[in-house]
């Protein structure tokens, strides 16, 4: 028969925390620690098809996900929507493409005169040069020019000069068939251009810009 007796000679600490059992039991003291079971989060399982980053943004990757990483699907979808909207904005419509080109019938411009057209919101000068103007511009000493450029490098057909009518000084619109060199004159600050659109006098640093153009057929000019 087991006999349980409380000791009266043990220390107050043991008396308050332990019980002596006659069959050899030892005192057990409380540690005050609470053991909580570990909560493990399953690792994300993801499988994606081999695609380029561009394809992922446009179509979204084919994937299977679990856990918090599943929110990545929403992120990819959002990126796809943004890219599609951006591509839509950057894609030029038929109307925009039509406005980017300017077709001009050259037989409407008499020799020795300069006509003004509008191209991409800017004035466009098309000059029908006479033989005397062509010969005169060909004789100019290129080394003496502020922005050295041969006349032959600025025209595809010697009879036609095509330049953007914006002064390279502060963006004013020059006057055709005026100035000290018979080409173009900007009255705002006194820049003079010759019949090749080259700066000859005044504050403008550069020649008038030559846009991209071509002659697809006789008497037809297409700019842009």
Automatic annotation (TrEMBL):
Per its Swiss-Prot or TrEMBL entry, what cofactor is needed? [2Fe-2S] cluster
Instruction: List the Gene Ontology MF annotations in alphabetical order.
Output: 2 iron, 2 sulfur cluster binding; metal ion binding; quinol-cytochrome-c reductase activity
Recorded GO cellular component terms are: mitochondrial inner membrane
Question: Which enzyme type, at the first EC level?
Answer: translocase
The membrane topology of this protein is:
Single-pass membrane protein
CDD domains from the UniProt entry: Rieske_cytochrome_bc1 (cd03470)
Cofactor: bound how, per the entry note?
A: Binds 1 [2Fe-2S] cluster per subunit.
Q: Which reaction does it catalyse?
A: a quinol + 2 Fe(III)-[cytochrome c](out) = a quinone + 2 Fe(II)-[cytochrome c](out) + 2 H(+)(out)
Task: Name the predominant localization.
Answer: membrane
Q: Where in the cell is it found?
A: Membrane; Mitochondrion inner membrane
Entry's EC annotation: 7.1.1.8
Q: Which InterPro entries match?
A: Rieske_2Fe-2S, Rieske_2Fe-2S_sf, Rieske_Fe-S_prot, Rieske_Fe-S_prot_C, Ubiquinol_cyt_c_Rdtase_Fe-S-su, UQCRFS1_N
Q: Does the keyword Transferase apply?
A: no
Q: Where is the Rieske domain?
A: 124-222
- UniProt keyword annotations, A-Z: 2Fe-2S, Disulfide bond, Electron transport, Iron, Iron-sulfur, Membrane, Metal-binding, Mitochondrion, Respiratory chain, Transmembrane, Transmembrane helix, Transport
Protein family membership = Belongs to the Rieske iron-sulfur protein family.
Other remarks in the entry:
The Rieske protein is a high potential 2Fe-2S protein.
Q: What is the name attached to this protein's record?
A: Cytochrome b-c1 complex subunit Rieske, mitochondrial
Species the sequence originates in: Lasius niger
